[in-house]
Amino acid sequence: MSEITLQGLEKQYGETTAVEDVSVEINDGELLCLLGPSGSGKSTTLRMIAGLETPTEGAIRIGGEDVTEQPAYDRHTSTVFQDWALFPHKSVLENVAFGLKMRGVSEDERHERAETMLERVQMGSYDDEDPTNLSGGQKQRVALARSLAVNPDVLLLDEPLSNLDKRLREDMQIELREIHEDVEETFVHVTHDQDEAFTLADRIGIMDGGQLIQVGDPDEIYENPKNRFIEGFLGDTNFVEGTVESANPDLVTVESELDDTLTIPAGEDHEVAEGTPLELSLRPEILSIDRLASDAEGTASEADEEHEPMLADGSVLNTVTGTVDTVLYRGSTVRYSVSVGDSSVFVERTDTTEESLSVGDEIRIEWNGSDVLAFHTDGTRVGI
């Protein structure tokens, strides 16, 4: 049985539609991340699951029970908020035990349960501490312990790590994942941070404009995005415009803005015809770069000009040449902005021990045509 089922969920505020026709099943014990930009409807969806907002339309079931009209205090859920919302006049232990007190649990039992949860989040020695003396990461752990102490069927997390600095946020992502594996409860986690979603999630749901666009395993979402928005949102990429020059059951060739014809291996059932405008996504990780060899007069050598276009496995190698415009050092990576024809692309090297390139260097950029994703001008994915 699915722990949470959302069916046709919609939320309107006046004439504004914040969430539109969201349907998904979240499995028992799963950690689902709702990922999207600000205003995409992810937090509103979470608040409807929590009972803090009432859907305009649609249904919510938890553990098979219809809770659409049920108030928050009757649902077996607990929520961790972005601002942690700890009581400053209560000790850490009292904060964690508060929810149990509201449920009528005896003092001894709630303190024992609170102490167990504090140990679980590595805050066992802070029972009597004033929450105002805690660091951001410690406050987050206490808030998490408080939510887990009531033993919810579902834990809802609304961007709980967004107020932490980068290093602490990364540490807490790992800890949160370990806690989820330990307690084996259903988690729904809202975030706008792609790295956070990929670190935490069993599955990711991408939201935009109030709609749930795609749900899948992290690698599925990344490797097979449903549309251009998802491809661009999940990481840096180069979008290159072009027009299909020819299309047959084996190859599609595209006359591109890189002043070169690009080739993509195709299947017999590809969806493009000659003259179709496309946008091609060239992610930096699929691009390899090398400085062009030069002869005595400083021009590209004949060997470079006759570079072999086929890879050993029979797939198609695409090659363009360009000039380095800018070099951006990022510690573990170096990003190069390269002029290619009348356009520009960025490429990266993760191995900074390689011979560095400089502004003005002539370089060759290569990639396997099979690694390219193509999109129609309306943003929908092209099957090639």
Descriptive report:
Belongs to the ABC transporter superfamily. Sulfate/tungstate importer (TC 3.A.1.6) family. It holds the Pfam family ABC_tran. By secondary structure, this protein is α+β, with helices and mostly antiparallel strands. The chain folds into two domains: 2-229, P-loop containing nucleotide triphosphate hydrolases (Rossmann fold), CATH 3.40.50; 238-375, RNA polymerase II/Efflux pump adaptor protein, barrel-sandwich hybrid domain (OB fold (Dihydrolipoamide Acetyltransferase, E2P), Beta Barrel). It has nine helices and 20 strands. The strands form four sheets. The protein has a six-stranded mixed sheet, sandwiched between helices. Strands 13-12-11-14-20 form a five-stranded antiparallel sheet, with no helix packed on it. Strands 15-19-16-17-18 form a five-stranded antiparallel sheet, with no helix packed on it. A hairpin with a 2-residue loop joins strand 17 and strand 18 (343-349). Helix 2 packs across helix 3 (107-120). The chain is elongated and about 80 Å long. The mean pLDDT is 89.
